[in-house]
Amino acid sequence: MWYNNILETIGNTPLVKLNKVTKDIKATVLAKIETTNPGNSIKDRMALKMIEDAEKSGKLKPGGTIIEGTSGNTGMGLAIAAVIKGYKCIFTTTDKQSKEKVDALKAFGAEVIVCPTDVEPEDPRSYYSVSSRLEKEVPNSWKPNQYDNLSNSIAHYEQTGPEIWDQTEGKITHLVVGVGTGGTISGAGKFLREKNPNIKIWGIDTYGSVFKKYKETGIFDEKEIYPYITEGIGEDFLPRNVDFDLIDLFEKVTDKDAALMTRDIARKEGIFVGNSAGAAIAGLLQLKDKLKEDDVVVVIFHDHGSRYMGKMFNDDWLRERGFLEDDKLTAKSILAKRTPQEMVTIDVNKTVLEAINTMKSLFISQIPVTQQGMVVGKITESDILSALLENPSLKSAKVESITTATFPFVDLNTSIDRISGLINKENAAVLVEDEQGKIEIITQYDIINAISE
Ligand SMILES: Cc1ncc(COP(=O)(O)O)c(C=O)c1O
To answer: Is there a contact between 93 and 115 (Cβ–Cβ < 8 Å)?
Structure first.
């Protein structure tokens, strides 16, 4: 038996019992693992459905161009379907998304335009606006608009919901889903509710998103909106695909809890999935007191962990955000291990001779250069030597004339490995802003001292 093309392999994903990350939960928790779809995410289902519906309604014509604002997974589904069906794809996405996701879209021949994250949706630079403009400008183009296109939730009503019902033999009592466009929760949830009106539908939201407050108060509160790290879930507007009446509650999860749980799922369950799966399990743990022993919970795992290698699965990335508490030395602990000291600097307008004298008297071989109190560069012994060899009169020139690029700045949580990696022939030190906002310098000597203590 074979499939006629890769699109026929979408769906029929496995349902797998979780055993360790959910040990504090009385109920049976089953994960619907959507990584076995050809694009490694659940979004293949709705991408194909949106295309097929647009073909039927005549909105998408042969040889047309698909234009969409997508954070990656929907783009992947659209791109794969476009390869098989002979369409072109142009995607707009945000600079918050993993580079891996963007590169994966390009692998299928799609064009990807990366837009800034921290602008209003109405801003002409936003990825929503750029894709709308392209739709007007590119001939024979069609914008699926996954947020408001109800083919999205219908795909889950027709596929995801029935699969879950059959796989649990109708025993499901709770559906737990990270909510982005709302397609998954609304479509699968509607089908399951029709089968059994007692099934609870819980949405997982993130801090920085409007969903939870809107569900609880009916108020669209702009104060709820701020940048966050979690990808795929939460929004700063209300997509048509989110059926607020169907959803019983929303639970918000922090970026840190989502990231750490994503790692735990791989380490404890052997299931390699993305950040929204971590958010969903972390949210479920927050809600565990609402569950009984004979409940059967289905949690959707939307996408694959390989798209997050530079993020949740990278220790330095986690440490820099203060998400990883381990005993590795960091900029913060290196500073704590040495006696407090004032950083010596020299102003750009001082003379090279003054710089030489300062360095000589303090036995230092490099010095940060400041302008109006701000660090703008550095000078080193070897810069001074080569300048003076070339032109001895430079002694009376301004420090500015031989200043080179500043030492690299690191975060207080940056690990000793990263810091050592940044220290080389050109940069004998790194700079860091301490908790009081003061700039401190960390030299090779400080690192050796901290290790040997
Ligand atoms: C990784 C990930 N998780 C969760 C979601 C949310 O799914 P939905 O858009 O169906 O609400 C998405 C959607 O883009 C996603 O890409």
So the answer is: yes
Is 43 considered catalytic here?
yes
Q: Are 93 and 127 a contacting pair, CB within 8 Å? A: yes
> 231: Cβ–Cβ under 8 A, 6 or more apart, which residues?
71, 72, 96, 97, 98, 274, 275, 276, 308
- Which of 73, 149, 202, 307 has the most ligand 1 atoms within 8 A of CB, as the residue to mutate? 73
Selecting among 23, 26, 32, 43, the annotated active-site residue is 43
For 188-212, the pLDDT digits (tens) are: 999 999 999 999 999 999 999 999 9
Report yes or no on whether pTM surpasses 0.70: yes
Q: If you average pLDDT over residues 274-281, what whole number do you get?
A: 97
Residues 6+ apart with CB under 8 A from 56: none
What's the token pair of residue 193? 């509710």
Distance from C-alpha of 425 to C-alpha of 214, rounded to nearest angstrom:
55
Describe the strand order of the beta sheet including 141-142 as a list of residue ranges: 111-115, 88-94, 65-69, 141-142
Phi, psi of 316 (to 5 degrees): -65, -40
